Amino acid sequence: MASQIEICNQALTKIGSARITSLADTSKQAKTLAAIYDVKRDAELAAHPWSFAMARSSIPASTTVPAFGWTKAFPLPNGFLRLVEVGENYVMYQSGGGELFHLEGNAILCNEGSPLRIRYVQRVVNAGLYTPLFVEALACRLAAEVAEDMTQSISKREAAWQEWDRAIKLAKRTNAIELPPRPLADGSWWGSR
């Protein structure tokens, strides 16, 4: 299982930079990685519905009703990064063009009954929960982000981005293979056949 420091050191190794012992170090490497780690980690988590970062929640409606357009507002759970599915049957889109919900501010607005069931990508700060391929992709992302600053080399930055592209594709493909197949929802197109 990887740690935050191991991921950062893997990134630094990829660009040929000195390793660190802590993000609290006074070295340029530690300061740079400490400044970007949380934001880049969250960006990589939110970019895909990683199995290890998925969560479910039944959210009670807020006592504050939206001013217009919707009958209820449901506050987003702590650690929320990306909405994946909404509603009783987890139907994301309604055939016929009508909106089922709207994500606005820190709430989901909709006309569903309370509690509202959702699936979402959550912030996972414990690097020990990451899959090995996600660790590799995150390390590549960090390497690409800091390469030019650490090495003054545009070619190292470009090479790091290419390595990230390969790593993220492999991580996403492997994550997708691990998910069970999902049946298609009956819709107007399906019914017309």
Q: Could you list the spans in which at least 5 consecutive residues all have pLDDT below 50? A: 92-96
Biggest sheet details:
3 strands, antiparallel
Order of helices and strands: HHEEEEEEHHH
Q: Which percent bin holds the helix content?
A: 40-55%
First-residue to last-residue Cα separation: 49 Å
Number of domains: 2
Spatial order of the strands forming the largest sheet: 1-6-3
Mean pLDDT: 88
Using the alpha-carbon principal axes, give the shape. elongated
Counted by DSSP, the helix tally is: 5
List how many beta strands DSSP finds. Answer: 6
User: Mind telling me the C-alpha Rg?
Assistant: 21 Å
Overall structural class, as computed from helix and strand content, comes to alpha+beta
Descriptive account of the structure:
Helices cover 41% and strands 17% of the residues. The strands form two sheets. It has a three-stranded antiparallel β-sheet with strand order 1-6-3, covered by helices on one side. It has 193 residues and is α+β, with helices and mostly antiparallel strands. The longest helix has 25 residues, at 154-178. Helix 2 packs across helix 3 and helix 3 (132-151) runs antiparallel to helix 4 (154-178). Strand 4 and strand 5 (107-110) form a beta hairpin. The chain folds into two domains: 4-49 and 131-178, no CATH class; 54-122, no CATH class. The protein contains five helices and six strands. It has helices at residues 4-14, 28-46, 132-151, 154-178, 188-192, and strands at residues 54-59, 72-75, 80-86, 101-104, 107-110, 116-122.
